[in-house]
Predict the 3D structure of the following.
Amino acid sequence: GIQVEQSPPDLILQEGANSTLRCNFSDSVNNLQWFHQNPWGQLINLFYIPSGTKQNGRLSATTVATERYSLLYISSSQTTDSGVYFCAVLNTGFQKLVFGTGTRLLVSP
Amino acid sequence: DAGVTQSPTHLIKTRGQQVTLRCSPISGHKSVSWYQQVLGQGPQFIFQYYEKEERGRGNFPDRFSARQFPNYSSELNVNALLLGDSALYLCASSLGLTATNEKLFFGSGTQLSVL
């Protein structure tokens, strides 16, 4: 099956810093989503981005489907950005999202 | 509008018992998927139901079963609980059958502890 790897596994930032999270996948995909899991376990959908670039406030994401990777940019990080960021992909007809290993982000004040 | 709702939020069971978890999708969404998230890992796909039929199944034993009701809500059942079934169980909903061009929206999950 498709493999999804994320880097770095852990990231510690000072408030106000910028960061880039990476997601590599092993096969072509027809769906790629970025999620933020907060400390209470809630998975928040950040982006649906199988290709191209999208921006939402301080967050933006870029997927280069031909090279099988996606990047999530966080600018001017805040303590509320802390949590685990997951990339999830799908390459079948039904909704079996395959999640990556996650990047655990801690933003300190 | 309410998001995806799951109940209960927390559950403690002992080995060998059976458990039922419940999920109500976003209004208008017809597809419900279930995922298991073990501590420190990403969620793993268990089932997808659409229009009350099973449309996909992950690599889980037959102790895991699910169903979807006419109002599109869903139940996940796990029989003969093992210690390894301790996890956060997440429900996701979406409009249609396939996930192409669609976002999945997740509930807050049910934290199951098996003692």
